[in-house]
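Journal club prep — side note

Before the paper discussion, L.F. wants everyone to see what a predicted structure for a comparable chain looks like in token form. Sequence:
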Amino acid sequence: MLAHVGSAPYRAGVDQRPTTVAGLLDDLAAEHRDLDGMVATLDEDGWGRATPAVGWAVRDQLSHLAYFDDAAVLAINDPSAFAALVESALAGADPMQTHLRRGRALTGGELLAWWRGSRLALVEATESLPEGARVPWFGPPMGVLSFASARLMETWAHGQDIADALGVVRTPTARLRHVAHLGVRTRGFSYAVRGLEPPPTPVRVAVTGPADEDWVWGDGGVTHDSIEGPALDFCLVVTQRRNVADTGLRVEGDAARQWMSIAQAFAGPPGTGRPSGHRP
């Protein structure tokens, strides 16, 4: 469910290395380790702590990741079985309820073991894919780079909800570039999932990474809207973890403002976002 936005290729002011599957998987594994460090020593009360996602506790965030990492492995290793899973989901067997029930029936230690096994299997299965392979998913098939980026984005975003629940302030890393890139690429999807057409006005995104590097998408033409500010804030908005009004982003132009009000880098139905004034 990823859509290109028709903008110029990504340009980095400092880090201009090409993105590779191996590099992405290294970053995904690092994201896994950071999240693991937040939850590894939780007691049962900690696993049950409410997160900013209404009705979801910490354990629900992790069971979500484990379930869809399992689904990703199935998509790679057994596309026919994965197609049956998608068909079941479309027929009304809500996968969200499936993983919530499973995760809530486990102890914290059992849930952690599930996720650790699922994430390791995901990395190993993705490593086995040939260059140029496409992976079936809940929507159009995805290229390997987009597929790995999406799993990293999900890990980071659900990790943010867990961090907010536990009162942890995470240190931003260069891995945010993958999340930001996915956020830009899914501009069209953010409209399509709501049955809308994106406005034709280009939107230039120029954000600052955690090492003060410039990450820019867009051709810098005379006629465009723009989004500028910290890369972390842009990532929080496109993953619907913060309302744009609660960030330091400078959003200029109607097209840019509309996009930031509905931005959605993750697959599935339209997300509800977070209300303004959300302060973990």
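L.F.'s comment for the group: The chain is about 50% helix and 10% strand. Keep this in mind when we get to the figures.
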